[in-house]
Amino acid sequence: AQTVTQSQPEMSVQEAETVTLSCTYDTSESDYYLFWYKQPPSRQMILVIRQEAYKQQNATENRFSVNFQKAAKSFSLKISDSQLGDAAMYFCAYRSAKVWGAQKLVFGQGTRLTINP
Amino acid sequence: NAGVTQTPKFQVLKTGQSMTLQCAQDMNHEYMSWYRQDPGMGLRLIHYSVGAGITDQGEVPNGYNVSRSTTEDFPLRLLSAAPSQTSVYFCASSRPGFRDRVNTEAFFGQGTRLTVV
User: Fold this and answer.
1) Chain B window 30-59: which residues touch A at a Cβ cutoff of 8 Å?
2) Chain B environment of A106 (Cβ under 8 Å)
3) Burial annotation B7-24 (CB, 10 A radius, 16+ → b, else e)
4) What is the pLDDT of residue A4?
């Protein structure tokens, strides 16, 4: 079974600075997808960024980028120019490519990010 | 476009009571899932379905029942509520990605906060 570990329960950063959230995972599979979800106080789960394991290039979405290290099974999220609206719980998630949909996501424990003005 | 709708948003139950958490999606997604979110544990998969009439257990299925009679609806039943089932419950849906490996993200409902006293 796959596992996802987020070792930082809480992180804080000054507004406009850069912060990196860590995620490691364990799997015996070679083909899979990784995701970062944002959960603001509204509880809504918002997809921030996704990475396909077969792609070596790190995914980027505006101020959000990942550092995907397949051999080390590491998938960190970097948020540049942090904004107050980035304050939320962030979850790292794994999906096997053996299933055709996203019905069996494996989540990490979450990291609560605080932005200091 | 409503997406994934969960009802109710909040619920308090007494130990031993039964109830059904409702989940409906209007995106014609074949795949649907139920997760529970607990502090320090992230989201854990309870049950999932890959189509009408087809369900399967996830990581933490005990104490919960599901059925899928239509593509749109995927209710979660608690037959005899226990304090250990106090949690936030999320329903999610997605579509098969065999034609499009990438575009299989999960869409989440707003969650149901359940307290069992």
Assistant:
1) 30-33, 35, 40-45, 48-50, 58
2) 45
3) eeeebebeeeeebebbbb
4) 97
Pair of tokens at residue B49: 């379905």
* pLDDT averaged per 10 residues, chain A (length 117): 95 97 96 94 94 90 96 97 98 88 90 97
pLDDT for B97 equals 66
pLDDT averaged over every residue in chain A: 94
For the CA atoms of chain B, what is the radius of gyration? 14
By C-alpha distance, the chain B residue nearest A4 is: B42
Among B50, B40, B9, which residue's Cα sits nearest to residue A101?
A: B50
Whole-Å CA distances, A58 to A34, A76, B23: 11, 10, 35
